[in-house]
């Protein structure tokens, strides 16, 4: 299931965004630390204004980039050939 990784200044800001867009709490994950988001594969990132004021913004961004690099390409089948 696709998870929305919400990069926000606080959990309250992330929850307000999810409510505004009708996204269930099971689909929404507040990026409170790299430990919470490390290893995710099927996700979409949402960056809210408060996130850019966080001291750990660069650390969170680096973790998201690592996760994106580990994703399986949708253009390659399990057998390694293109569609």
Question: Any key phrases for this structure?
Answer:
alpha/beta, 3 strands, three-stranded parallel β-sheet, 83 residues
Structure report:
With 83 residues, the protein is of the alpha/beta class. Helix content is 35%, strand content 16%. Strands 2-1-3 form a 3-stranded parallel beta sheet, with helices on one face. Helix 1 (11-21) links the parallel strand 1 (3-7) and strand 2. The chain starts with a strand and ends in a 13-residue tail after the last helix.
Number of strands: 3
Mean of residue pLDDT values: 89
* Spatial extent as radius of gyration: 14 Å
- Helical content, roughly? 25-40%
Biggest β-sheet: strands ordered side by side in the sheet: 2-1-3
Give the SSE string: EHEHEH
Please describe the biggest sheet, giving its number of strands, its sense, and whether it closes into a barrel: 3 strands, parallel
- The span between the termini is 23 Å
> What gross morphology would you assign?
globular
* Helical run tally: 3
Which regions have little confidence, pLDDT < 50, spanning 5+ residues?
none
Class of secondary structure makeup: alpha/beta
Please indicate the percent range of residues in DSSP E strands (runs of 2 or more): 15-25%
């Amino acid at each position: 299931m696709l998870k929305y990784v919400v990069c926000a200044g606080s959990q309250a800001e992330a929850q307000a965004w999810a409510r505004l867009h009708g996204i269930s709490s099971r689909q929404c994950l507040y990026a409170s630390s790299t430990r919470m988001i490390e290893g995710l594969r099927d996700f979409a990132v949402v960056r809210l204004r408060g996130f850019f004021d966080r001291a750990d913004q660069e650390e969170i961004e680096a973790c998201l980039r690592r996760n994106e690099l580990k994703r399986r390409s949708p253009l390659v089948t399990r057998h390694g050939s293109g569609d």
